[in-house]
Amino acid sequence: MQGNEAVAQGAIDAGCRHFFGYPITPQNPLGDYMAEHMPKVGGVFLQAESELAAANMVYGASAAGARAMTASSSPGISLKQEAISYMAECELPAVIANIARGGSGLGNIAAAGSDYFQTVKGGGHGDYRTIALAPWSVQEMYDLTRVAFDLADRYRTPVIILADAMLGMMMEPTTITEPPVDPARLTPKPWATTGASGRPKNVINSLYIVPEKLEAVNLRIQARHDEAARKEVRWEEIEAEGGELAIVAFGTAARVCRTAIERLAARGVRVGMLRPITLWPYPYDAVRELTQRVKRILVVELSLGQMVEDVRLAVEGRCPVHFFGRTGGIIPTPSEVVAEIEKLLENE
Predict the structure, then answer these.
(1) pTM score
(2) pLDDT digits over 84-94, tens only?
(3) What are the start-end ranges of the E strands in the chain?
């Protein structure tokens, strides 16, 4: 299965029956898959007139209690941010997949990790966060999409799947380990606008002119953020039991680093890796604990350095934090990562 298709199938198997999108590369195969398969399960696929329209259609479907999704690539996600901010303030669950491309502006269609800031540091306006999941394989593209819908409903928040062009376009064997979710058997959402016959009306709103009322809403949302930060932090360690150096990397960069670690191990050089799976909430405690087992950390990214800021926050000066990355859609090679590590170890 292709990565884009795995996200789409993961959404369908999670009980999503409402997908609203707009074409953009390298996300297009995801929309193509939805267009073909949504009608087969009684779902809705709609190609909107713009990215903003598609995101606002997700807003409407979610307000009505449906599991809804949109997907795009970097500049398309920028256009969706207004609706994402509205959904966050309205406490609406939704899943947004970003099959990211390189650069600011239109950039290019190559794989990049430079949407980290956009994903975990806001993107839109206001006091909100979005849970962010970072797969590194096609299997995780499928698995984490299913997880994303559960997290979105549990915390009543938009959840973003941050992948890139390489993960979106590659093909790998994929196993479907759990039966599909029947949308009719999902937990009811008593807050949804499903018709007010026999009950008080539900109001979905993000406009609160009275500051105290808006603060009360923001504090309620913050309480969910705090709960997610306690319960939903996910990461993976690879050969990080001890040694001179550990890598911190996510997504495609982590795949490259795994190969570099294997090559170094063949030469007797022991290097481990911590791979954040949730980019928000970030595994600060896990990174901090890593400093007790290694002398230094190398952050590898498909950017000029974005996640490295969170690593430095976690480390709090306990050990040196170095950075290596490529930008513009260029993926670091395992040989480059090996050379960077050897240079660091030689200069110790």
Answers:
(1) 0.96
(2) 999 999 999 99
(3) 18-21, 44-47, 68-72, 94-100, 131-133, 158-164, 235-238, 243-248, 271-276, 278-280, 294-301, 321-325
